[in-house]
Design brief:
By secondary structure, the protein is of the alpha+beta class. It has a domain of 136 residues. Helix content is 23%, strand content 29%. The chain contains seven helices and 14 strands. The strands form five sheets. It has a four-stranded mixed beta sheet with strand order 1-4-10-13. It has a three-stranded antiparallel beta sheet with strand order 3-8-5, with no helix packed on it. Strand 11 and strand 12 form a beta hairpin. The longest helix is centred in the N-terminal third of the chain and has 11 residues. It is elongated, with a radius of gyration of 21 Å.
Length: 235
């Protein structure tokens, strides 16, 4: 059953509501972790916690949060991750966490305790994450249901799995010494749609609609390139 018109109108007015849930990587290996996830084609419960975690906070509103974490060597979260349609994760069993004081956990049915997260407004507050969890060992990444998030725009091409190069094209440039430099560019097909924090910051009004427009403008037949090396022909 579709949402009624009132709820649809509310969602259009509320920029804190999103059709996607986000899984961000962390620590100083955040980008490498994202590359590994994309090569596997799935998110995995690496820590063996029995759940995979997401945030409902919309990506356009998270730039300030990532700026807070930038000075840390091993940040709790970094701007590298995957956005997955909320509808898909809900169908797989994903649910919002249940915030409460530690003694309230035992009031829940044991089958629901995986959703519990301790909360205290002063001493233990993770409610800003607006966390969701899904009690599975892995979630397959389907291009039609997800998109990639990176910090810098050029990292999107690096992050995509380009082991299978479709074609190779030469690119000639003139170096500082006036000699030609030939670079061999491997042509790759877009594996997932994606957007960077760098792009978000360039948008005048970075909201959910702006992100949707950017993603809709992308095509899986669009080609990216990876530099395979270069040389000067007269050397």
């Amino acid at each position: 059953m579709a949402l009624n018109r009132t709820v649809e109108h509310i969602r259009l007015k509320r920029e804190d509501l999103s059709d996607y849930l986000y899984h961000f990587t962390k620590n100083k290996e955040a980008f490498e972790t994202l590359v590994s996830i994309l090569h596997d084609g799935k998110l995995k419960d690496i820590g063996g916690k029995g759940v995979i975690c997401f945030t409902e906070a919309p990506f356009p509103m998270l730039a300030g949060m990532f700026d807070v974490f930038r000075p840390y060597l091993d940040p709790m979260y970094a701007p590298y991750g995957i956005g997955i349609r909320k509808e898909k994760l809900f169908a797989l069993g994903g649910r919002p966490v249940i915030y409460g004081s530690p003694d309230e956990k035992e009031l829940l049915d044991p089958k629901l305790q995986w959703r519990f997260q301790s909360y205290h407004p002063v001493h233990c507050d993770y409610s800003w994450l607006r966390e969701w969890r899904i009690p599975v060992a892995e979630v397959e990444l389907l291009p039609e249901d997800c998109f990639v998030i990176t910090d810098q725009e050029h990292e999107l091409t690096i992050a995509y799995n380009h082991e299978d190069i479709i074609d190779i094209e030469p690119d000639v440039d003139i170096g500082d010494d006036k000699r030609p430099v030939v670079s061999m560019l491997g042509k790759i097909q877009r594996q997932y749609k994606g957007i960077s924090l760098e792009t978000i910051k360039k948008i005048a009004h970075p909201n959910n609609a702006a992100v949707a427009d950017e993603l809709l403008s992308q095509s899986f037949v669009d080609m990216g390139y990876v530099n395979l090396g270069h040389w000067c022909p007269d050397q």
